[in-house]
Amino acid sequence: MDVEKLRQLYAAGERDFSIVDLRGAVLENINLSGAILHGAMLDEANLQQANLSRADLSGATLNGADLRGANLSKADLSDAILDNAILEGAILDEAVLN
Predict the structure, then answer these.
(1) Which has the least CB within 10 A, 13, 20, 54, 71?
(2) Domain count, the chain
(3) The model's pTM
(4) Looking at residue 74, which CATH number applies to its domain?
């Protein structure tokens, strides 16, 4: 799926993007609050300043993803793979990390 299609679907009310392949995508400043990204492939994605509050990122791969300044409050990151992910300044209040 390309980023523009993702933005359109989210704006139209779609929230389930399970297993979506967005490896290397530029998603800087995107609002995906409450989105279901279970099992999503987000390796090397640019998610700087993204709003991922209350998002379900369980089982997602975020290897090398740039999450600087991203809002991950109340997000579910259980079983997510975050190897080499950049989390500097990310908001992780009440995020599930186990």
Answers:
(1) 13
(2) 1
(3) 0.95
(4) 2.160.20.80
